[in-house]
Amino acid sequence: MKEVNWKNVDAVYFLGIGGIGMSALARYFLAEGKQVSGYDRTSTPLTDALRAEGMDIHFEENVERIPAFVRNPANKDRVVIVLTPAVPSAHAELQYFRTNAYAVLKRSQVLGLLTENHITYGVAGTHGKTTTSSILAYILKVAGRNCTAFLGGISVNLDSNLLLGDPAKAGHEI
Fold this sequence. Notes:
Oligomer: single chain
Order of helices and strands: EHEHEHEHEHHEE
């Protein structure tokens, strides 16, 4: 896996931005001040919400639709591509990024990189992960804990799949 210094990253491009896990990461990077854009196969209420938040999203597999800054190979060291396994390896945009030696990381790898230096709570299992994660995030928030939560669904009381803490404050948990 390629080493990523997030301070040097200006743009994050998502292949499959409309997925629940991918969209939470997209929201996180937008809040971090990164240029966030991406592709998804279909428009949904979630991709509509992301667009309303300021993300450039298209629904056509077309390299020309990738924002110019991201598409320019001269900027590849300042761009990270986040991939969901749902995108086939023959996808034209993915092929473009791989041919031009961009950093292409799976969503799970990005989550690992973001959480490696933080206290992290993970919820696993076959049923109830989203509910349990949402309850845990809510409890930490109302208890005054500084935490960021990537949720597997849209939490009704947050109206989002992302709860943002302040990473500059001590005791930040993810």
